[in-house]
Structure formats: structure tokens, C-alpha cells
Amino acid sequence: MRFDIVTLFPDCFHSVLSSGLLGKALAKQIAQVHLVNPRDFTTDKHRKVDDEPYGGGVGMLMKPEPIFAAVESLPILPRREVILMSPQGQTINQPLLRELVTNYDQLIVICGHYEGVDDRVLNLVTREVSLGDFILTGGEIPSMALINGVVRLLPGTVGKVESLKAESFEEGLLDFPQYTRPADFRGWKVPDVLLSGNHAEIAKWRFQQQIQRTASRRPDLLSKWQEEREEGTGSREQGRNE
């Protein structure tokens, strides 16, 4: 199994990758982990990897160009998955880890940072994966969990195979798509509403996108959100009638 980790902070992996069963497995070439820094693929003198989001908002987004260049520099194995570590992805669980071990020989893992990545990066991605419904400063810690969980299932990592057989968001909606410069990247264009300067329409569009994304990716969250809204409406109606 080959892992290619796209990260702005490759140094934080060194201790984890050299420790315990994971370190032994890598030393025995049961798996390989390669670290690639998108900052090495920037073209400006400041090696800039982030920019302000179109439409306004707090924080910065990772630009698409360095991420695309980093991923496209990697060798391509026949059975590969390109994963974005994202709180909007499917939660890591044992069935997912077993699926990855069974079906893939190469996992490319993109670690987001800041307020996330330009949404056009999803054109590279075949799967979004999350550590859970909470926010961290970046995708490095979740990616370490993913590497650890996958490698320990590979033959030869755990001494006794039998031991493996014995093992058993703020508003309640997912985030809306976000974009940064350039406005047109490889034919993928930023939605016109985000370039309009009409903040009311931008807010309306973003809310609609949240609903749509949550419905398609986490219908369980949408059901919970709808129930809470209905309960809140019922409480307000009762208060007005008393």
C-alpha cells in the first residue's frame, strides 16, 4: 500500500510514522508513506498557498493550483483513491478502513488547512473522509488516524491475525462551497453570484447550498436539523398563544 500525503506540515508526521507498529510496518515495507508539500509547487516568490474567499467571509482558503500540481506530480497506481480530509466527508469507521485495504493500492490524502480548500479541488477528489463532526486546525491529525487504521489491517503489521478478527457542526448543516482566485480554473468557474457583490443574494445562495449538500451527503444531519427547527417553531407558537 502506498500513501501520498499532501500536507503543508510534513514534519509533524515524522514521529508518528516512526513509532510503534506503524513504524515497524513501514520499516518492513508493508506500506510506504510519501509526503509532498504543495508549497513546493507554488510559482510566486512568496510561495503563497492561500487566498481570500470570493464573496467575503472570515479566514483564508487553500488555492487550487498548488494542490493540483502536487497531486499531478505523483505516480499513478492502477487502484488509487484521492481522499480529502474534510469535516464534510464520511466518518472513518472500520468498514471504511477495510474497504480501502481491500480495494486500493494507493491512497492520496489531501490535508486541508485554514478555512478549507477551494471547492474546485473536489474535481481531483474521489472521496471525502472525516474524523468526526468537529473541527481541527488541519487535516494532518485525521490523515494520521486514517494511515494508522489502514496499515494495521495490512498483512504482516499485526502479529496475530486472529486479534483483528476479535475486534469488534455549528448550525447543524454542512458548509457551503467556497472559492478563491482564479475565477476560472481549467474551465471550472466560480459561481456568478459570488462575484456579484450582492451580499443578500450570496447569503441566500450559501444557505441553499448548505441544505443541498447536507441532504445529499449527510441526510441524518438534515433530518436532525429539520426536527430542531420544527420544535423551535412549535415552542414559539405556543409562547405566542399563551
Description:
It is a single chain. The chain has 242 residues and is of the alpha/beta class. It contains nine helices and nine strands. Strands 2-1-6-5-7 form a five-stranded parallel beta sheet, with helices on both faces. Helix 4 (94-103) links the parallel strand 5 (80-91) and strand 6 (106-111). The longest helix is centred in the last third of the chain and has 23 residues, at 219-241. It starts with a strand and ends with a helix. The model has no long low-confidence stretch (mean pLDDT 92).
- What gross morphology would you assign? globular
Uncertain segments of ≥5 residues (pLDDT<50)?
A: none
DSSP strand (E) fraction? 15-25%
Largest sheet: 5 strands, parallel
Structural class: alpha/beta
Tally of helical runs: 9
Which assembly state applies to the chains in this document?
A: single chain
Order of helices and strands: EHHEEEHEHEEHHEEHHH
N- to C-terminal distance: 65 Å
Question: What is the share of helical residues?
Answer: 25-40%
Strand order of the largest sheet: 2-1-6-5-7
- How confident overall, as mean pLDDT? 92
Radius of gyration, Cα only, in angstroms? 21 Å
Number of strands: 9
Subcellular location: Cytoplasm
Family: Belongs to the RNA methyltransferase TrmD family.
Region (Disordered): 218-242
EC number: 2.1.1.228
